[in-house]
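User: Modeling request: complex.
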Amino acid sequence: MSRISLIHQEGALRSYFPESTIIRRGEEELIWIGDITPSPLSETYRVKLHYRKGHFINVYVIGRKLTLARGKTKLPHVYSTPKQQLCLYYPKGNEWHPGLFYVHSLIPWASEWLYHYEIWVATGTWRGGGIDHEKVEEEKDQ
Amino acid sequence: MINNDQKRQLSEILGATGKTLGITKAQYEAAVASYQFVGDWLCRPGSPLAPFHPEILPQGSFLLGTMNQPVHTDDDMDVDLVCRIDGKLPWWAQVDLKNAVGDWLKAHGTLKKMLDKEGRRCWTLLYRESVRFHMDILPAIVANNFKVLLEKAMSESDTSKIAELAIRITDRHLSNYRTVVNPDFWLKSNPFGYAIWFKQRSAVTRYKIFTLNEAVQPVPAYEEDRSPLQQVVLILKRHRDIMFNGDADKPISIIITTLAALAYNGEDDIFDALNNVVSGVERFIVNRYDPVQQRTIKWIANPVNQEENFADKWVAEPQKQANFYRWLQQVKDDIASIVQRHGGLPLIKEGLSRMFGETQMNEAFAAMGDQALKTRVSGGLKMAAGTGMLSEFGRTPVTHHNNFGSNE
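Assistant: Request completed. Predicted assembly structure:
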């Protein structure tokens, strides 16, 4: 599928999230900062999506330190707990590609991550599905 | 205050909570198998009761579908049963019926070992296997046309048949226990009439017609999806169990169940139902002048026998009345505090854990997480524009993806 240009991504982001902040440098870079409330009784989280040409797109929760579930030392399904950078798709699958609108993929996925994050803090177990880094490593060894 | 979306989510949370508070299918099946075994033994040729077609029927919360999980895993569940017979030898007084049941239970080696000391009205069997419960078996005589009555269909407006479902029971504390052979003078009770009344009150859609049989069966169907009223009763009784933690003066289940059913108004939303019930129950506790006490007392009438006061013990034990009102206020305060909580689902769960217990709430929230994942996988989860909120009605579906990375 052909790549969606950043100018179209920006238009879709503005349509979905008129209140959000969007910074775009031509077709080189796009930063979206918006507030997401994953469920009616959830907290509101500030999410940052950052695209730079030649890099993966990164999605972060910013502006606050995310609480960990009791007894845990790391966030679930993140690239980095200190950076609060979310792992929203399996890189080797074809789940994400530049032919997708952010508002149809990464942003709903981030909202879903936030919902399951709250359940995780509440219960100590991750119920949002996904593929475990370590399990993939184990499978490779076999 | 909360908006409609938040209210809907609170209902979802309370629904998931209600699910974890009732007994499981495994517990249910273990209890049914156990009482059917007893029923079969009572019918066995040689049993003094066999000519009178004894049948073991559940009553109380087991029949109503409002039986709570015990607070501590090593606590017993109480299964209330009626040992129904449709006749007796003409010279039998209450004591003879009671002993006929007790003696035949003792004639079975295993049952004899499980038998507890004789109760006022019941025989109690203690089960101490994988599922711990005790079964209170209430010997009772029913009217001859009991089964015929059960077959009849009835609508809510026709409650005239309910009184005819009354059974006659034995009571060791009564002066006529050993003497009177005519059951018309024995103590009357109407657990099956009550069950039918409760089922009518449970109906979300009013004026539903059903047969009496649906409400009273030897093996009531295990209800995976309990009605809003059943869930409200489970929630209220659990709150009571946690708050009073074994205190003998706690509000009794029949009072909570009756008041909830009276105040329930057919709401299909559990949060609405709970709110309306809690704010409405006091209306159904009436003040009546008691000529014996020479003062006004609280009266909570048995809906199928207005002359029976479920709160009769409040007179001699005023701490029971005080506890009831203290509990009701606490439920109101707790619901209000949940509504006011800001800090996301973890904080709401923490508040509910204090009301209903940590294990149950972990289970309830995990079930909601599982449900959200299931909805997304089936393509039914959508995200709203503006807020990014997830529901079944958003602007864009949450498409297939796998969260990657260690889940620790």
